[in-house]
Design a protein that fits this description.
CBS-domain; Histidine-containing Protein, Chain: A; 9 helices
């Protein structure tokens, strides 16, 4: 199996001329470990990690650019390389993710340790993990529970209304391998509905 079969795409990148604080917001909002850094033509020039930002100062001075804080050159892998080679590179360099580049050095995706671990799971388990992550990211907490059987996804829990139920179904449907999505649970009563809507 090749890198392009597993990598995440599209991938979010940051320009080397961007401010380091702007990149820090991206990392914090999405919980990412690193961001590929590109020049104006989309070519990989480095990687910006949370460690790079900490070394640049916390908070980073407003005039520090991503290019000044990033790690360069970046360790990368080509789309056509074997996953065994990708695993070796991740472990040898102690990396959590690898930018993936094409023959022109442009960033086309990113491959993480989590992507490789999911390959070790049974198909239904991998679908459940991905669907649960999407739903948890949306709600900010574990409000719904995902189960999967032969590709059929069930999202169980309480929903504020039918609109929220449809959102949950749509999110779960974005997971590769999900054949169908159903929900289990009923709209909550008035008191519970208000509690679900109330910010933490």
């Amino acid at each position: 199996m090749r890198v392009h079969d597993v990598m995440q795409r599209p991938v979010t990148t940051v320009l080397q001329s961007s401010g380091a604080r702007q990149a820090a917001v991206l990392l914090a909002e999405h919980g990412w470990a690193a961001l590929p850094v590109t020049d104006g033509d989309g070519h990989l020039v480095g990687m910006l990690t949370s460690g790079d930002l900490l070394r640049a100062g916390t908070p980073s001075p407003p005039d520090i650019t991503v290019g000044a804080a990033m790690t360069s050159p970046a360790v990368a892998i080509a789309t056509y390389q074997d996953l065994a080679e990708a695993t070796k590179i991740l472990l040898q360099h102690g990396l959590r993710s690898l930018p993936v580049v094409d023959d022109d050095g442009q960033v086309t995706g990113i491959l993480s340790r989590g992507d490789l671990i999911r390959l070790m799971l049974k198909p239904d388990e991998a679908i459940a993990v991905s669907a649960q992550t999407r739903l948890d990211d949306y709600t900010g907490t574990r409000r719904w529970h995902v189960s999967v059987s032969e590709g059929s996804v069930t999202v169980a829990g309480s929903f504020v209304d039918d609109s929220e139920r449809r959102i949950a179904i749509a999110l779960a449907n974005t997971v590769p391998g999900a054949r169908s999505v159903t929900t289990a649970g009923h709209p909550p009563g008035i008191e519970q509905r208000e509690r679900l809507r109330r910010p933490p």
